[in-house]
Records
---
Amino acid sequence: AQKVTQAQTEISVVEKEDVTLDCVYETRDTTYYLFWYKQPPSGELVFLIRRNSFDEQNEISGRYSWNFQKSTSSFNFTITASQVVDSAVYFCALSETQGGSEKLVFGKGTKLTVNP
Amino acid sequence: DAGVTQSPTHLIKTRGQHVTLRCSPISGHKSVSWYQQVLGQGPQFIFQYYEKEERGRGNFPDRFSARQFPNYSSELNVNALLLGDSALYLCASSITGTYGYTFGSGTRLTVV
């Protein structure tokens, strides 16, 4: 079965520090998708990125960057020069397709607090 | 364009009661999925519907049921509520799933 592990339960940093959120996954599928979502206190899951298992290129979007390493089954997320508005719970998720069903398997999340 | 809308936003129910949660997907999205998020945990898959048919079901008891209507909106029903059903219930819509899921703000259910 698919599994996503986010070993860091909580991280606290001071504004402008860089921070990396770790994500390790397990799957037997050869084709899969990895996602990162941000959940602010309001509760809505905000989509950040989707990465195809065949695309191992790192991606940068503004202050956000993602490092996908298939060899270590990791999909880590780095925020550069963190800001208070980055404070939220971040979830890594893995797609699972089985018998026509498509679902996301989520990690337990990492709560990031950015202090001024 | 409107995002995924869920109603109600908050709900308090008593043990043993029944509850119906509603979700309207993004226009053009034919797949709706439901997730349960207990405090401090990641969301857990409950159901997926595509073109009004159930495509998948997570590891939840038969007290949980859902359906999708011709306009692709969906309802999640939970019977005989237990204290442990207290959670944030999230609805997500997608075109096929692999293009990414857009989540609503959720319904926060409290069972007392």
---
Amino acid sequence: EVQLVESGGVVVQPGGSLRLSCAASGFSFDDYSMHWVRQAPGRGLEWVSLIDWDSGNTYYADFVKGRFTISRDNNKNSLYLDMSSLRPEDTALYYCAKDKFYYGSDNYYDYAMDVWGQGTTVTVSS
Amino acid sequence: DIQMTQSPYSLSASVGDKVTITCQASQDIKNYLNWYQQKPGKTPKLLIRAASKSEPGVPSRFSGSGSGTVFTFTITSLQPEDIAAYHCQQYENVPITFGQGTRLEIK
């Protein structure tokens, strides 16, 4: 079974730092790009970041650029999001998501998220 | 960044109704648009990719159309289990962006 399990979400003070993790299983992790997407309470989905299969390319939403860093360890089938300079508006449920298309396929850059974890909650509050 | 504007923000319809949601891009995104369904308390599910290609197992009452800047998501005969939020997402350019979502409820 393809599965993603996030962890690391906590309550943190403004200006603080945090690392989120996502453990992947049931698929060839190192063949796929991976995403972080967040959802504030009662709000829509916000794409946060993307890393390609071999970490060669990373991309960020403007609102996290310079504060968040995405990384992965293909030997551990794990995805990470290092978050710093946290703001109250970063409060959200953070999902990791697998991209649909594997590296080498014709549609590799047709970014679509076909498997989602259950999310981990980050609360930024004093 | 490409802005995605979804309408309506919320929608109430009766079982059996045809429901239409629109997503407008701030610039031409060709057909690089996906639709997701998110049932209450659940994770998003990819329904349609590339504007009109349904994912395996998605009921035929769900469809998508459009290209360029205006896209439409349609449920031809609303069922009680379709209660959810629906989100569009563009991938023509990074950063990837979502619409604000449409909340669908049954009358």
---
Amino acid sequence: GAVVSQHPSWVICKSGTSVKIECRSLDFQATTMFWYRQFPKQSLMLMATSNEGSKATYEQGVEKDKFLINHASLTLSTLTVTSAHPEDSSFYICSATKRGGTGELFFGEGSRLTVL
Amino acid sequence: RKEVEQDPGPFNVPEGATVAFNCTYSNSASQSFFWYRQDCRKEPKLLMSVYSSGNEDGRFTAQLNRASQYISLLIRDSKLSDSATYLCVVKKNYGGSQGNLIFGKGTKLSVKP
């Protein structure tokens, strides 16, 4: 199988600070990575799609200046929540598709962000 | 109308019971359908794809009715380990990537001894 690792699993930060979440494909090259957000008892919502070496494509309603996505290599994408506020507290999950694969999504374990 | 709707549950069933989950989707042009399983505070994991002719994987059977825009998942002989939230997922009909997925809120299943 394909393994996608996210770090950190849990993060608590003060309001106004920035938090970076990493998403790594451990045993494959990921052409595309996706970032989702899930609020309690809500469905996963796609935030943005990132392709290696190019700018991320954000879904409607997602602020690109607040949620900075960098996909510098075929195995790493980062999501930075800038000037986080309590309403940004959520479960952030990344997923990736394999280069040359079928398009199946492989999910990271998720990162739970709590902003105080 | 939400793009993917599911009964939120929870479904509380005894071990060995048969349980059925229903899902409806609003975009008639949707092409691909899936059931994912999500354990509490964990990432979703693909349970099975749903094909037009219906498909079975062990105790799990998935059905698709395109005319009614309805998807179902049947679990037979439920186990304690089946306790989880089951997500109905539909692929938007644009782009080739599976990243364009619409997730339902999920139906929570709790299997009791």
